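User: I'm designing a mutation panel for HMA domain-containing protein and want to avoid disrupting the core. Could you give me a predicted structure to guide residue selection? Please restate the sequence first so the numbering is unambiguous.

Assistant: Good idea. Sequence first, for numbering, then the predicted structure tokens:
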Amino acid sequence: MVEVFKTNVQKETDTNYIIAVIKRQFPAYKINFDLEDCDKILRVEGVDLQWKNIINYVNCLGYSCVKLE
């Protein structure tokens, strides 16, 4: 399963931190950002993906994160 999220993350260093936080809770997930995209895309791939938790983690770190349909 793959979920795609729109974020407001701007810096590569921030993406590394966010990925590390998510990976601590969900080590099997494949996670990447596309900061070149106008929506600053966060892409997460995994089995039984808990997308609401992903949004909560990113929001708690001070960034916006919205699931794209």
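For picking mutation sites, this is relevant: The beta strands are 2-7, 30-34, 41-45, 65-67. The longest strand covers residues 2-7.
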